[in-house]
Design goal:
alpha+beta, 4-stranded mixed beta sheet, globular, binds adenosine-5'-diphosphate, binds magnesium ion
């Protein structure tokens, strides 16, 4: 199997096709139709073996996750996904690996009607780069900047699950079978919050996806918005799995662990009620965790235990 047969078999044949693709895989560049009055949102992420994943990582989950983390960035911008490109560096053509990797990749891509429109294939240490493209109406882009003093701070879903999943893998952490399965799923196959991002176009004053932990990512949001934040620690959304470990450890994970790919967003109090009813209609879970304040930095409120292990400088 030569390089072009490989691209054809594992990638070109498996991708769904869109009418806005004039030329996808097969020429020197892709030719794409962009909708009028919308902005093209572009984001890229690279996963390197030994840095972002271990050599025994499941190829199916890897394909899924590499696209999911990119889609999470589109979600945080309020964008609707359209296309993606894939740069793959591999030590050799490992067909069983490619079979699983492409299956995981297209499982997610096809859910969002995304077309793989090109890429690059090279020999070297296993490295996967995906670039995604999506659209958002010009006036409705979600950005990190835009949070106003008095806005409520929300997060989708639950926090700290992927961090607990990582502990299960690395520290041989003991957990019930059900919790273990749940946190590993959260770590290995995160769900990008695309529908939430699109819904928030109308309501959110700012948004960011949580890839590096709530404190780190909310920190980026408030510094872009030039405001401060107060977080009520007891309001942090903890899943059933985090509720079975020590409360203090759960809170530390929820505040600092990465890889959850939930969305943190802000909404003005005037818009809050309408937003909540739309979220409920859409059956999207979210929790108010605090509010935007004047000044800078994140202040944590209402916790009753020492959090010296956080090692975070914002408070
Ligand atoms: P070039 O030599 O012009 O850079 P390539 O030979 O690298 O082109 O690729 C040929 C075609 O296959 C191009 O359309 C390219 O976008 C596509 N392609 C290459 N590698 C991949 C990949 N890993 N996934 C998807 N498409 C790919
Ligand atoms: Mg060429």
């Amino acid at each position: 199997m030569d390089e072009f047969d490989m691209i054809d078999y594992y990638f070109k044949k498996k991708t769904s096709t869109r009418t806005d693709v004039i030329m996808g895989i097969g020429d020197d560049g892709a030719l794409l139709l962009t909708p009028k009055d919308q902005l093209l949102v572009v984001s890229v992420d690279t996963l390197v073996e030994g840095v972002h994943f271990i050599s025994t990582a499941n190829a199916y989950e890897l394909g899924y996750k590499t696209l999911a983390v990119n889609l999470s960035d589109l979600a945080a911008m309020g964008a609707e996904p359209a296309w993606f490109t894939l740069a793959l560096t591999m030590p050799s053509v490992n067909q069983p690996w490619l079979e699983d990797f492409s299956a995981g990749l297209f499982e997610l891509a096809n859910q969002f009607n995304m077309q793989l429109v090109g890429g690059d294939t090279t020999r070297g240490a296993l490295t996967i780069t995906i670039q995604v493209h999506g659209f958002v109406p010009r006036q409705q882009v979600l950005r990190r900047a835009g949070a106003q003093v008095g806005d409520k701070i929300y997060v989708s879903g639950f926090l700290g699950d992927a961090g607990l999943g990582l502990k299960v893998l690395t520290d041989n952490y003991s957990l019930s079978a059900e919790s273990k399965q749940y946190v590993l799923q959260r770590l290995n196959m995160p769900t990008p919050k695309i529908a939430l991002g699109i819904l928030l176009r109308e309501f959110a004053s700012s948004a960011i996806d949580i890839s590096d932990g709530l404190l780190a990512d909310l920190g980026h949001l408030i510094s872009s918005s030039q405001v401060g934040a107060e977080i009520k620690v007891p309001q942090l959304p903890l899943s059933f799995a985090l509720q079975t470990i020590s409360h203090r450890e759960a809170v530390e994970l929820a505040l600092t662990a990465g890889d959850d790919y939930e969305i943190c967003f802000t909404v003005s109090p005037h818009q809050e009620e309408k937003m909540l009813s739309r979220l409920k209609q859409a059956q999207i879970h979210s929790t108010c965790i605090g509010k935007i304040t004047a000044g800078a930095g994140i202040k944590l409120l209402d916790y009753t235990f020492e959090m010296h292990r956080l090692g975070f400088q914002h408070f």
